[in-house]
Design brief:
single chain, repeat, 18 strands, 389 residues, DNA-binding transcription factor activity, RNA polymerase II-specific, Double Stranded RNA Binding Domain, Znf_C2H2_type, globular, mainly alpha
Length: 389
């Protein structure tokens, strides 16, 4: 059974989710800054430190701890402009002095608030504050459960299975985020192009494609990235780190996604199928390249997604995927479909009809694409027979 995981408020998340949640929180702060037009201070800070400062400011607002504002308002009521100007100058001097005092005693780096300084100081005490060490890669964690969840990166364990598409996840937070893809809820809209997202942090990252902002810079070569995760993956090219080994052949990879793609060589899985001919591919890039071979002689283009079709009727059927119109209804179970061919295939579930038979073993299938996938199991290399004597 999967290890029980903490709720979002417990602060006990996986190593990857910890990074993502911290980045998401910081990017939500940045998003609020974009919407409200707020100008940030000149003191540089990491996303985590930015979130810490925002949290501190929020707490001060909730408790009414804003002496400068109260003092300014009271002097304003008396109409004494000189007193107000003097107060503002004193406040600026105090803020300047506080900023100078918020410096790390070990490295001298300055911070915009005490929470950011406290967060930074933990980096100097990582061994003491993170006693749980991964024996595979040396990464440390503050809680034992975080280490357990992290170790799934090395073991490949994915105990959280989506009931809708059978995709599996290492942690519950990734699983819950994935389920939003099935609900279709995307409340965050890009004001530049209208594209929708199910997370505010994803919207903030997307907006960098319009602004060209790349805030994450590699200290080795100076290359900049729009996402911290891309920077982390890039930095492995300098250190030679390949933390994702294949359990079947031992080959290692810099990214878990590359390992998953590679493992399909061993399993024979080809999840990306061509809708025209049923051919399957290991990578989506290979499928897209293959689909271009079907593009010739297709004058009918979908105005919504750009997909092209040879016949106008095919385009009409396709457009129902955008309008969600399903005029073909199954008389047995009531399920509806956008195309009559989809209904015909579906009805074979009720009738038991399997018209596509394998000429090698005689096994039959409901769909032609399933037959094609099955026939590849007969193409696996077998030991050659010894020649007759």
């Amino acid at each position: 059974a999967p290890e029980p995981e903490p709720a979002a408020g417990d602060g006990m998340v996986s190593e990857n989710e910890e990074e993502k949640s911290q980045q998401e929180g910081a990017e939500q702060v940045e998003l609020r800054g974009i919407v409200l037009g707020r100008a940030e201070g000149d003191v540089s800070q990491s996303p985590e430190q930015g979130e810490a400062c925002e949290s501190q400011r929020r707490s001060e607002r909730e408790h009414g701890n804003q002496p400068e504002e109260r003092l300014g308002k009271s002097t304003g009521k008396r109409g004494d402009k000189n007193v107000h100007a003097k107060t503002s100058k004193t406040s600026q001097q105090r803020n300047s002095a506080e900023q100078r005092s918020l410096a790390c005693g070990k490295c001298g780096q300055s911070f915009p608030c005490s929470s950011a300084l406290s967060l930074h100081q933990r980096s100097h005490n990582s061994a003491r504050e993170k006693p749980y060490k991964c024996e595979e890669c040396g990464k440390r964690f503050s809680r034992s459960l975080n280490l357990i969840i992290h170790q799934r990166v090395h073991t490949g364990e994915r105990p959280y299975k989506c009931p809708d598409c059978t995709k599996c996840f290492k942690n519950s937070s990734g699983f819950l985020r994935h389920q939003l893809a099935h609900t279709g809820d995307k409340p965050f809209i890009c004001p530049d192009c209208g594209k929708c997202f199910n997370r505010s942090s994803t919207l903030v990252t997307h907006q960098r494609t319009h602004t060209g902002q790349q805030p994450y810079k590699c200290t080795h070569c100076g290359k900049a990235f729009s996402q911290s995760s891309n920077l982390i993956r890039h930095q492995r090219t300098h250190g030679g780190e390949r933390p994702y080994p294949c359990p079947d052949c031992g080959k290692s990879f810099t990214q878990s996604s590359n390992l998953m793609t590679h493992q399909r060589i061993h399993t024979g899985e080809r999840p990306y199928k061509c809708t025209e001919c049923g051919k399957g591919f290991v990578q989506i890039a290979s499928l897209l390249s293959h689909e271009r071979t079907h593009m010739e002689g297709k004058p009918h283009e979908c105005p919504d997604c750009g997909k092209r079709f040879r016949y106008g009727s095919s385009l009409t059927s396709h457009q129902r995927t955008h309008t969600e119109e399903n005029p073909y209804k199954c008389p047995d179970c009531g399920k509806s479909f956008p195309q009559s061919s989809n209904l015909s295939r579906h009805q074979r579930i009720h009738t038991g009809e399997k018209p596509y038979e394998c000429p090698v073993c005689g096994r039959s299938f409901i769909q032609k694409s399933n037959l094609f996938a099955h026939q590849r199991t007969h193409l696996v290399d077998k030991p050659s027979e010894s020649p007759p004597k």
